[in-house]
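Note to self: keep these together.
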Amino acid sequence: MDMFDVIAVGGAKVDIFLDIHDTNQHFRLSKKTGELCIKSGDKVLVDKAHFMIGGNAANVAVGLARAGLKSVVVEEIGSDEFAQKIVNVLNKEGVSERLLKQVQGTSSFSVIINYKRERTIFVEHEEREHNFTFDNISTKWVYLTSLGHKWKSAYKQTLDFVKNSNIKLAFNPGTSQLDEGSEELLEVFKKADLIFVNKEEAGQLCGLKNSENKENQEFINKLLINLKNKGPKVVVITDGSNGSFLIDDQNNIIFRKAIDTATIEKTGAGDAFASGFLAGILSGKNYKEAMEWGSYNAASVISKIGAQQGLLTRQEIEKKLQNA
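Structure:
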């Protein structure tokens, strides 16, 4: 039987990043509406293109492997050259492909436009059956995250594995889950030891907006308590430069300020925080220390292009903490 520290169930895909200089005459960003505009039919020169792998599960698995932990990705990918890129990178990073299943067809991918320190993401999810198997494997944690179409049966299978194996579950829902799955999400919440969401996702899950113009801390405390009441033992909410917030199993609320760093590109910040946090927990750290691990990992990722370039090793995280 193969033993892992974390099994990451969710997306593994290719990300194509297009860097657009702030002064590029073909692009215009409306400050009023936030709309990014280009002329229809225009031919646009980009400053640089980057061809990398991404996907929530792959990002977290790579982050854990960098921290010296044994991780594996559970996902179906295609049989094209994109799939080979995914396999090659995971192998290079020391992430097991034991549960990575290749099927006929193309792999999922995203195109990300980086312009004026903000990202615009075009995502294509190939429809998969998500016929996963957890045979002959053991783990300390399962990290369940975003899946595309037909995710509900995969989530049920994962929950069954967690319940039957008496292991811990961390959960980070994706867009499809937030939009479609209220009943299914509640089942995951009831079993989850830990959930990760950003402030906007938390607001959507709770049906709450900060319409009362409350102080940010007060509003997030309300979100933390609301989510905790749905069943998970611990809830973490990230809020970009405003930091991260946690409510533990004793209803204690902990705040960790964000690390001050120059932002190049924000893709993968949440995944970096999650992998750093889990690496801290698996290394015997308390929640406050784990939040520090997650914060440094996220800060490093947003200082580089892509979701994985900036992921830190355990030694790098510890050195940053020593120098703080």
